[in-house]
Amino acid sequence: MPDAPAGVSRALRAAPPDQLAEAADAAIRLALAACRTDVFIADYQISGLWPVLGGPLTDAGQQLAQRCFSSQQPVLDTGEDGRCRVFVPLSVWGERLGALLVELPRVPGADTVEQLGDVAGELAVALRAADRETDRYRRVRRRERLSMAAEMQWDLLPGRSVDQPGFLLAGQLEPAYTVGGDHFDWSLDGDRLTVTVLNGAGSGLPSALLTAVTVNAMRNARRSGGALVEQAELASDTIFYQHRGGRHVATLLLEVDVRAGRVRAVDAGSPHVLRLRGGAVTAITLEQQLPLGMFAETRYDVQEFDLVAGDRLFVVSDGVYAASPGGAEPYGQRAMARAMRATRLQPATEAVGTVMRELHAYHADADLRDDAVVVCLDWHGTHDQAG
Fold it and tell me: Which Pfam families does the entry link to (predicted)?
């Protein structure tokens, strides 16, 4: 049997960025005698998976693809004619992009399914790299037109999830097609994971511009070797000297030692942090400091807290925690805790969606009145701590 992953890898390297699906299709057909292939990409709301090559899936096919996407495991479906559809997840460094469908003339063996997993991995890396060179895959992701503010926000994101041996991290923005200022960012550097969550001020394009300045100022400090305090202070000074105190951004900056579970935090009038440990939900109380950009040369202090193996942290913006549709009790006082407990058996990548769906239900499925961001961090601990 030809080496399918190697053949696909060569084909992808030779293909133009907008022709990756076609290149993979030809290589997979040649290597595995496949009857059909297609690439399905998750939309911005993760409400479904959408084709790059062919037509949409049937309801039954969509369920199979969603099962593969959610579980991050291959899903096989054998038809009456003996053909077998194999869905394998498209993901890179834990970021879930979608699913690869390969239809084979017969049920494959375990070695072929493993090869398809390697093929999907090669394709996912290529798709991630090509995203800056073509709009084709972004057009598949959007089910309606993005606002200008949302276009900027999604382009600014680091991704929507990252999976490493010590942790799993995921985030989601809503309303996906019109989000303005709420945002999240993260970066992994050795044992240090930096996570920032912004509760954007205002709405629309001015809010998105303010968020872009804030995120890039923090990135500038971080990439220059600056710790949390330097990141907060450079962003605060940048905002202040641009707006003279007229605009400011509530922000939480976290730095997690992913081996030891020690968390350092700068709470700049921030979004809310809640911890799920076992079945108990507890708010992490931090001393709130001034939002970024409120005053000139504001200085910030670091606070610390510890995680234990199996802890789950949720960071949510005011659009989640303080939501009170029709004057109801704010979502974060009770409903948020119920939603968090409901995620106990889900990975972080699924948990952010559960909390967002519960938030929409709390609004009786009406449009959200405010931007909402949910970030979920599962800390697995080291082998010694987990044992």
Answer: SpoIIE
For residues 300 and 289, the answer to whether their CB atoms sit within 8 Å is yes
Query: Dihedral, CA atoms, 210, 212, 215, 220, nearest 10 degrees?
Result: -110
Report the C-alpha gap between 158 and 94 in whole angstroms: 12
Strands (E), the chain: 36-42, 49-51, 75-78, 84-92, 95-104, 161-164, 167-174, 183-189, 192-199, 250-257, 262-268, 272-277, 280-283, 303-306, 312-316, 372-379
Q: 31-41 in b/e burial notation, b at 16+ Cβ within 10 A?
A: bbebeebbbbb
Please list the residues that pair with 96 across neighbouring strands.
91
30 backbone dihedrals φ, ψ, rounded to 5°: -70, -45
Name all domains of the chain by residue range, CATH numbers in brackets.
4-140 (3.30.450.40), 146-386 (3.60.40.10)
**Residue carrying the six token digits 């996407």:** 69
Please report which confidence band the pLDDT of residue 367 belongs to, taking 50, 70 and 90 as the band edges.
low
As a whole number of angstroms, the distance between CA 194 and CA 266 comes to 11
